[in-house]
Write a structure and sequence with these properties.
367 residues, alpha+beta, SH3 type barrels, Alpha-Beta Plaits, 3 domains, 4-stranded antiparallel sheet, 3-stranded antiparallel sheet, 11 helices, elongated
Length: 367
């Protein structure tokens, strides 16, 4: 049968023998705890000095700190349990249990925060899949919150509080927050899917449909977050696109498969020009660039017959997609120079106007 703490205290105070026995027990508990605390410090310090040069311990400097802290918490738990058993109070037992739950939550959070960098160094760099990157990233952001929330619920349950209203209230609050922040949650889910599916990655060159007017319409992916993706255009403008919008649009990625892409350049010549000579000149100009590939070789095809020109299209493969505009600009400029030298006409719309005048030599007689 449980003895209330006040009654237990009165019994001890009324009997000197019991008081002396209780004092000896309490002193013995704290002395044993202090000795155990000292032994843990001495042992861990010696082990740390002996093995601190090992590669594992050099990369994980907090290992011995966690071991020492775990030992201290263990001593604290044993001392507290012995003291509670001596006092035999249900209230103090519940308070101590709730405190220990929160303390263990702190230990678990410290262990997780120490393991994440280790897993990031030794696991994610050795795997080709991107799922582990997603898991590590989410664990960094939400592990501590989840551990402390779970610990708080268990601590309240240990104190005898009814946690069901809190759980139900949290569920209702979660639904309300979900409706209020649906766009944020949509971006969050889209960000996770974006990281898992990998239609693009940091460093990829993609088209940007939301670029400002009269500015560059493509750029490099700078970062992919859980809410938005940042893209730096070739004009050095950072465009931040919400992930849910990015996932609902067609993504034109120039570097998803490889860095080699084909560039198409329209060129027109007159009907009177030498078609074969024009094709050879365009191919020769294309090969002047270092980044233009010789295999597959550049080629020129006839696309259509226009009103005043034969419409050609130069098709060249380049090694760096970031040279796309440089390729188009250089070939267009050089082709104009070469065509002028070789008398190949680049046509432009022309209209010949003929004026027909009739002269009356013998006017008709007047009536």
């Amino acid at each position: 049968m449980e003895i209330p703490f006040k009654e237990y205290y009165n019994q001890i105070a009324a009997s000197p023998e019991r008081f002396l026995s209780a004092a000896v027990h309490v002193l013995g508990i704290f002395v044993a705890g202090a000795i155990a605390w000292w032994v843990i410090n001495v042992v861990t310090n010696k082990v740390e000095k002996r093995f601190q040069d090992r590669p594992f311990f050099q990369k994980n400097e907090r290992f011995f700190v966690l071991i020492r802290r775990a030992g201290h918490y263990g001593v604290f738990l044993l001392v507290g349990t012995a003291f509670i058993n001596l006092v035999d109070s249900q209230l103090i037992n519940r308070i101590f249990g709730a405190f220990m739950i929160m303390l263990l939550s702190s230990i678990a959070c410290s262990i997780v925060n120490s393991l994440i960098p280790y897993l990031e160094r030794n696991l994610t760099t050795r795997t080709d899949t991107h799922m582990d990157d997603v898991i590590i990233d989410l664990t960094k952001k939400f592990a501590g919150i989840a551990i402390y929330v779970a610990g708080g619920i268990m601590a309240m349950d240990r104190l005898g509080l009814n946690v069901m209203p809190f759980v139900a209230g949290a569920g209702v609050a979660g639904i309300a927050i979900g409706f209020a922040a649906k766009d944020t949650l949509s971006n969050l889910i889209s960000g996770i899917l974006l990281i898992i599916d990998r239609p693009l990655k940091v460093g990829d060159r993609i088209e940007v449909w939301s670029a400002p007017k009269n500015s560059s319409t493509w750029g490099d992916v700078v970062s992919i977050g859980l809410r938005a993706t940042k893209i730096r255009t070739t004009d050095n403008i950072i465009i931040i696109i919400p992930n849910n919008i990015l996932m609902n649009r067609d993504i034109v990625n120039y570097t998803a498969i490889s860095d080699e892409i084909r560039v198409r350049i329209p060129i027109g010549i007159s009907y009177e020009s030498d078609l074969k000579k024009a094709k050879e000149s365009i191919i020769r100009v294309s090969l002047e660039l270092d980044w233009v590939m010789k295999d597959p070789a550049p080629k020129v095809v006839v696309k259509s017959f226009g009103d005043s020109s034969v419409d050609l299209q130069a098709r060249v493969w380049i090694r760096d997609p970031r040279k796309r505009m440089d390729t188009i600009s250089y070939i267009t400029d050089r082709v104009k120079e070469v065509f002028d030298e070789e008398k190949i006409e680049i046509p432009y719309p022309r209209r010949d106007i003929y004026i027909k005048r009739e002269v009356l030599c013998n006017p008709p007689p007047s009536q």
